[in-house]
Structures are given as C-alpha cells and as structure tokens.
Amino acid sequence: MNNSLFKKLLHTTAPTATILIRIMVGGVFLSEGIQKFLFFDVLGKGQLVKIDTPLSASMLILLAILEMDCGIFILCGFFTRAAAIPLIIDILVTIIKTKIPILLKNGFWSMAYETRLDFSLFLGLVFLLIVSAGPWSIDADIIRRKDKQPS
Q: The domain containing residue 70 runs over which residues?
C-alpha cells in the first residue's frame, strides 16, 4: 500500500473522547456478532425468517464474524475507517430491511422508536469514518511510530 495512502487511512484528528464512541459502536457490534452465534435459532435464522431475508446460514455466520471482527477493530482503534465501511453497509441494510417496513406499516413515530439504536450506530460509524479513531488507538500509535522512523 502506498505510504501516503496508508497514512491518510490511519491519520486522525479526533479528540481523545472519541474512545467513548469507539467503545459504544465497537461494543454493540461485537456483542451483536457474538449473540448471533449464542442464540443462532432466535437471532440468526429466526430473525432472517421474521424479516423474510433469503440469507443462508453460512452467510449469516459470515455476517456475525464481520460484526465481531470489525467491532474489535473499532474497539482497539485498528484500521478504524476500513472497519467502519462494512458496518455502515450492514446497518443501512438493517434499516432498509427492518425499519422501512415499520415506517410504511405503523408510521414515523413507531419507526423512530424502533430505529434509535440503528440510527445512533450509523451516526457513530460515519463519525469514525470521518475523523478516525483518536489519539488513544492503534491507528494513532502506528502513525506515531512511522513518524519517528528515519526517512
């Protein structure tokens, strides 16, 4: 990977308090991925049947692994921007498949209530995509180490 592109990917202008967003977003996705394994019949296959999604069990397992891995990356602040992208796609698909039908059937306020966590996660992920992980992260540590290396 081009060194300049690598630095841009990891560069962060975020404040130290960004760790709180990382803990919230990464923790939720890690937990969701783990729960898909622990309660596979209810939160895995059962959820897919409930929302009429034709994903296979193996695709659901891959999704759970993606949520766990990207959740861990965000918690650690490791390739934060890269980890945010698949999770943004994941949460947008979730909103489209599960919350838009609520909007159409029950109206705005019912949908707004049901989508509060999804919307919060989406905004947290967009925030991390824009500013990255902050100074207390592996990303920032990698940049600091690269900057100390003689040219």
A: 18-144
